[in-house]
Amino acid sequence: MAIRNTLAGSLAIAACVIPAAFAAILQSPTQLSSKKSYDYIIVGGGAGGSVLANRLTEDNYTNVLLIEAGSSDYKNLNIAVPQLAAALARSEFDWNFTTAGQPGLNGRSIPYQRGHVLGGSTAVNYMAFNTGSRDDWDRWANVTGDSGWGFDNIVKYIKKMENFVPPLDGRNISDEVDVSIHGHSGPLHISVSGAKVATDDRVINTTRELPSEFPFNLDQNSGDSLGIGWTQVTIADGERQSAALSYLDPILSRKNLDILVNTQATKVLQTGVSGGKPVFRGVQFSQVGSGKFTTLKATREVILSAGAIKTPHVLMLSGIGDSSELSKFNVSTIVDLPDVGKNLQDHPLVTSPFRVNSTDTLDNLNNATFVAEQLALWQKNRTGELGVATGSQLGWLRLPDNSSIFETEPDPSAGPTSAHFEFILIDSFIDFSAPPPGNYFTGFTVLVSSSSRGYITLNTTNPFDPPFIQPSFLSTPFDIFTMRESIKSMRRFMAAPAWDGWILNEFGSFAAAQTDEQIEEYARNTTVTVNHVTCTVGMGKTGSSGPGTGALNADLTVKGTVGLRVVDASAFPFIPAAHPQGVTYALAERAADLIKGVSTC
Fold first, then answer.
1. Are 4 and 444 in contact (CB under 8 A)?
2. How crowded is the C-beta side of 487, counted as CA atoms within 13 Å?
3. Considering only CA atoms, which of 432, 428, 433, 446 is closest in space to residue 354?
4. Alpha helix locations (H) across 420-533?
5. CB 102 within 8 A of CB 472
6. Positions marked catalytic
């Protein structure tokens, strides 16, 4: 999501740090015991790795080492306070990646935020929680040939992870969410925003005034996401719920789990051959600047959960990838797997700001004095504006079936329950630029069923150098058409009678983009990313080979290898029309059962 450029970030960093628990957390490889062996070594402590660390260590006789490149500071104030999420971009908790120049964005390079802390990107995102549509999951099942990835089967894993809790203000939410379809005993606390804001009624009234184009959806996590509805978030009692807080913090007393932080996995290592395939049960890792590399061997599996940028990066550095690409960097190919790093999919975003006739907006959070007051209130009892969600409503919408683009371009969506584009509706000014004086409403339009495909490859063979990242945003006729039409749809939404007298005018260069050509150019000049990079080591049918058939088998094992598995958003074969953290949690919950040998269907 785009960044609120405020004074809040510097204030929060200076304010304080909430101490983290260190009972089972090692700060250096030198603290590893030479007498202890591990059944599983997991690389990456985000949604995938945290779930696995929790579920695999439920068996007291299974020893797990979790290696995280970032720090253990997952209770840092900027992470804990929902409205301070903007302070996390380009901070110590961000990998600080930057894309290559984007031809579809008039040559611009853009920042690519990924979490660099225990909890991964769940500790730095904007906390929207979606679990994908029925069609999203059923497409995975069709692509992999594994019905276990279908929606009807995956629902039990969604409920297993969820603990849906009431919002902090205790209001009746029966008209905001269908609580009956959610889980209530899982590790991950989710809810709706902890307090209502002034624009909530206007958004919902628009669904009543324009129900044909903008229908209301009581629960967008029901399997049918289409319509405008209340945002479900990983916030409980006013505080962010990251993977580290939800899945790791409660189990730090387990003797069979060690967590090694501030340590970057640099390669997976071949440790033998089995059935003619190379066995990868070794991991090489190091701390930045130390010059020292440590190797360790798992007795069962190495599991990469380093995310959709770092997982393919580690694989390629290890000699697993497209041999023609690896040879350019004199990396010896051990497994020629062309799909590693390919098929990158993401959700590009455009901002549409409106000036409003009100002072009752969240724009007050651009004022350092007000933020300081709100921070004191949050620290006292977790209430106030800093504990609410960034946006109270989301919209998931499709192009009309008779849209002209379908005369020449195929529909890249998963099916009729999956959106082509998304609305994120926020009662303040949100952008990469400094906030101007006044009060605003911001509509984000997000392309969530894209036909563009990017890639990741090596920049150098230095594991501490970032890889080359090319998302290829807006590189197809379908994508630029849909982004243009989504902006026009946003304008129709904001022209509903519910906004009469409250919207003053469109703001900035957005206001000047009125013709189709101007809107498209506005999109190319302003598009950023919602930071949903996925699909770079995607699943395919088990045993299939060759370009485009997937880098992983349907059980998430790396094709052509033994003892190596991937469990993170890189494993998606297609990006869901959803914010992907919830989908990643569900994938990891099923992966844990696959690893344990528990029936998953």
1. no
2. 30
3. 428
4. 477-494, 508-512, 516-526
5. yes
6. 532, 579
